[in-house]
Amino acid sequence: MSSAGAAASGAASAGAESVDWAALRAVALEAMEKAYVPYSKFPVGVAAIVDDGRVISGCNVENASYGLTLCAECTLVSSLTMTGGGKLVAFTCVDGHGNTLMPCGRCRQLLFEHSAEGMVLDTVSGFKTIDEVIPDAFGPRTLVAYREESLAE
Ligand code: THU
């Protein structure tokens, strides 16, 4: 089985124990090798399992206009959308040495938008749910609640 296939098997319902994290990390490492990082020389690779069992990945893509850099999570979310959408159930992020990396704050927000309930992240301090890495998050439900409140006025 490919590393992507191994990572996905039995993972649609999330739960850290149902994910082949070694296989998912292997996908992230493969993605990290593709990073375009002439400025920071800090390659990042990410991989995730989608609720339909798809395995997707991403790498950072930098720009001479530094602030336009795309984090690896940005390319992962683009891939999610381009390959059929869905919700993320498991996620891992590695640096150029293969060490687990914590997604930056902006990318936690990006991941939150597309997370399945109880999405699990492999972090520097163990497996964490999306709600643990971005507590009380602003998100799609905030906007829906606001709209409903406005209609009721
Ligand atoms: N980076 C990511 O790709 N994801 C993160 O969550 C943290 C930072 C990238 C952006 C930039 O190309 C490099 O790491 C150094 O900041």
From TrEMBL:
Belongs to the cytidine and deoxycytidylate deaminase family. It holds the Pfam family dCMP_cyt_deam_1. It comes from Herbiconiux daphne. This is Cytidine deaminase. PANTHER family: CYTIDINE DEAMINASE. Its EC number is 3.5.4.5. It catalyses: 2'-deoxycytidine + H2O + H(+) = 2'-deoxyuridine + NH4(+); cytidine + H2O + H(+) = uridine + NH4(+). The keyword Metal-binding applies.
